[in-house]
């Protein structure tokens, strides 16, 4: 049987999603490309990854998780944009930029998770 999510949770996610989408547009449109690398998307992915890790590794209440993690950060981070922009680099024959963009997004975002985890461990 199909059940519908709690309307209160949906409101928290939706409100957060609105905020996250606006933040994503604002941040990514202000950061220029660096040598063909879409640095705005990289910035959003890195900031979103660190924020998500900080909140996930901490023990925040469920309402914060719905509003911030799923809502704000779910629409703020831009993996689909990263995938599209990276594909376009390959399509345009920018093989080096294609590879560097993948490397930077993966390495920096995993580093961001590690840093957030270690920071919370130090503050505990």
Automatic annotation (TrEMBL):
Pfam family membership, one: CRCB
GO molecular function terms noted in the UniProt entry: fluoride channel activity; metal ion binding
Single Gene Ontology BP annotation: cellular detoxification of fluoride
Residues reported to bind Na(+): 74, 77
GO cellular component: plasma membrane
Topology of this chain in the membrane: Multi-pass membrane protein
Keywords: Cell membrane, Ion channel, Ion transport, Membrane, Metal-binding, Sodium, Transmembrane, Transmembrane helix, Transport
Chain ranges passing through the membrane: 6-27, 39-58, 64-84, 96-120
Catalytic reaction equation(s): fluoride(in) = fluoride(out)
Xref: HAMAP family: FluC (MF_00454)
Family (UniProt): Belongs to the fluoride channel Fluc/FEX (TC 1.A.43) family.
Purpose: Fluoride-specific ion channel. Important for reducing fluoride concentration in the cell, thus reducing its toxicity.
Protein name (database record): Fluoride-specific ion channel FluC
Organism taxonomic ancestry: Archaea, Methanobacteriati, Methanobacteriota, Stenosarchaea group, Methanomicrobia
């Amino acid at each position: 049987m199909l059940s519908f999510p709690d309307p209160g949770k949906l409101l928290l996610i939706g409100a957060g999603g609105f905020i996250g989408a606006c933040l994503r547009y604002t941040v990514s449109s202000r950061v220029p490309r660096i040598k063909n690398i879409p640095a705005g998307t990289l910035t959003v992915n890195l900031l979103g990854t660190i924020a998500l890790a900080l909140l996930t590794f901490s023990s925040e209440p469920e309402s914060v998780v719905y509003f911030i993690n799923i809502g704000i950060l779910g629409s703020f981070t831009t993996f689909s944009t990263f995938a599209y922009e990276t594909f376009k680099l390959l399509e345009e024959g920018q093989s080096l930029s294609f590879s560097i963009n993948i490397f930077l997004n993966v390495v920096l975002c995993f580093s961001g998770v590690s840093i957030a985890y270690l920071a919370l461990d130090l503050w505990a």
